[in-house]
From TrEMBL:
It comes from Streptomyces pilosus. It comes from the Bacteria. GO terms for molecular function: ATP binding; ATP hydrolysis activity. Residues 13-229 form the ABC transporter domain. This is Aliphatic sulfonate ABC transporter ATP-binding protein. The keyword Nucleotide-binding applies. SUPFAM superfamilies: P-loop containing nucleoside triphosphate hydrolases (SSF52540). Keywords: ATP-binding, Cell membrane, Membrane, Nucleotide-binding, Translocase, Transport. InterPro entries: AAA+_ATPase (IPR003593), ABC_transporter-like_ATP-bd (IPR003439), ABC_transporter-like_CS (IPR017871), ABC_transporter_ATP-bind (IPR050166), P-loop_NTPase (IPR027417). The keyword Hydrolase does not apply. PANTHER family: ALIPHATIC SULFONATES IMPORT ATP-BINDING PROTEIN SSUB, TAURINE IMPORT ATP-BINDING PROTEIN-RELATED.
Length: 238
């Protein structure tokens, strides 16, 4: 996977006037959004605010949903979900390689597995992996396709807190190495601030806050407070 040094000027994704409704109820209301190439963006919002609907629209997998708008997105898009979606009847390497061909596919699959810390587990069955390992395999399956855009819908939502922290470090490391544009859907404010360079807050069908995250020591708490306020959340302990 060739790292590129592209400037953050050419948008990888351009959405214009995106509207989506279910049974007459508008979930996304005339959204315009540019995701610059190589940027790591997190999308925060309350449950039901339309985060997954927006991600599916960007992925082009919301056929049959009522709506309008235009989308420009790269050709190579990978999607990771909360559940690894590994096929239980295939070993890990064939799962990672699913639908790929070419003489070097096996080698690339092994390299991707090594990169996510699963070297030596190529012949394991999905049910032999822990939840965290299964998500590592899902990341390898995405990476081996060399995506220009990586869409992740709460990929760590089902993991325990410690595994989640390790996965955060892994995802950030993979992003730094390969620089795909990333859109990460999460409802975890700390996850958004820890990983992303830009955090969007979705509310009432619109992007209510568009926050650039500067990686400075000690800045995390201030971003956290600002995002919680935007979400209308009060913490029990100040
Ligand atoms: N296929 C569908 N048919 C009907 N309603 C839907 C459909 N998909 C989503 N919705 C509705 O659209 C709204 C937004 O759903 P969406 O899954 O995008 O929210 P979300 O922010 O991702 O929520 P969560 O954080 O709980 O996953 C919800 O009210 C949901 O019930």
């Amino acid at each position: 996977m060739a790292p590129h040094t592209e400037q953050l000027t050419r948008p990888a994704v351009r959405l214009r006037g995106l509207t989506r409704s279910f049974e007459g109820r508008t979930v996304l209301d005339d959204i315009d959004l540019d995701l610059p190439a190589g940027q790591f963006t997190a999308l925060l919002g309350h449950s039901g605010s339309g985060k997954s609907t927006l991600l599916r629209a960007v992925a082009g997998i919301d056929h049959g949903v009522a709506g309008s708008g235009t989308l420009t997105a790269p050709e190579r898009v990978s999607v990771v979900f909360q559940d690894s979606r590994l096929l239980p009847w295939r070993r890990i390497l064939p799962n990672v390689l699913l639908g790929l061909d070419g003489r070097d596919a096996g080698e690339r699959g092994r390299a991707a597995l090594a990169e996510v810390g699963l070297a030596g587990r190529e012949r394991a069955w999905p049910n032999e992996l822990s939840g965290g390992e299964a998500q590592r395999a899902a990341l390898a399956r995405s990476l081996v396709r060399e995506p220009e855009l990586l869409l992740a819908d709460e990929p760590f939502g089902a993991l325990d807190a410690l595994t989640r922290i390790k996965m955060h470090a892994l995802l950030r490391q993979l992003w730094e190495r390969h620089r795909p544009s990333v859109l990460l859907v999460t409802h975890d404010v700390d996850e958004a601030v820890a990983l992303a360079d830009r955090v969007l807050v979705l509310e009432r069908g619109r992007i209510g806050l568009d926050l650039t995250i500067e990686r400075e020591a000690g800045a995390h708490a201030a971003y956290r407070t600002r995002l919680l306020r935007a979400l209308g959340v009060t913490e029990a302990v100040a």
